[in-house]
Amino acid sequence: MSRDEVGDRFATLTFQRTVAAPLATLYAAWTSPAARAVWASPAPSVTVEFLEADSRVGGREVSLCKVAGEPDIRVEAGWLDLVPEARTVGYEVVSREGENLSAALSTAEFAGDGDGSRITVTVQLASLAADMAAGYRQGFDAGIANLSAVAERTMLLQRVIKAPVPVVWGAWMNAESLPKWWGPDGFSCKTSRIDLRAGGEWVFDMIAPDGTVFPNHHKYGAVIPGSRLDYTLHWGENGPKHADAWASFEDVDGATKVTLGMVMATAREYQDAKGFGAVELGLQTLGKLARAVGAE
Predict the structure, then answer these.
(1) Smaller CB count within 10 Å for the chain: N or C?
(2) Which candidate, 254, 232, 40, places its Cα nearest to that of 150?
(3) Which fold would CATH assign to domain 2-152?
(4) Do domains 2-152 and 156-292 have the same CATH topology?
């Protein structure tokens, strides 16, 4: 829902939604570039292309909103303040063909209890060309609804590993070490090819203790050394995509907090994954990573 106070050029818009997802998951879906790319489009007719995406204080996000037959809309945004699971503050400037249309300051506040959470977004908008308030209301209403659906099918796994970020990052982004620890306890990996760079891929079979083979294909997007990597998961080489994923690495007093997030392609896939124990199996994988760097 939304409420607004609109003047000739300025507007204050507020959006609020309750989401059937834990607070940490909602916050991650709001801030993580891989998740934002999934829910950013306000309508099926709009394609959003991200040119830059860095969700750290001082980081910048640049995207193009594309509609067939119309000039691209450019959105340049930045993160001014990030308080995990509590608050984000950011700015954005919207332009078209070099003309600034609007500037805005957006504050998102989060609250949660158990498996439910809530986001409240306040936008202080200045229309620099035409009145942009109606467009903002429509876009944010759709975006918050999309965010809710994405958060409700996002799986979030976290572990603090008692090793420095460069060591943990190095174990993940090394073509020799990654296949040795990837997968739950008792699983092994057989690699066909591996290229751990932005635009690269890892084609491999994950083999269960009983010999069952699970074909996998990871396609890598953004890679920010020591900070984050984004990738998509496919069922076998060039098979159907079943998740948009990311891994982030954060220094915590000399240890590394690893966050592994996965936005499942559908709500059904999310429920199926939870049903066969994907959370527990994923935590086992992070446990193997900890052992690989000698932190357990």
Answers:
(1) N
(2) 40
(3) Alpha-D-Glucose-1,6-Bisphosphate; Chain A, domain 4 (3.30.530)
(4) yes
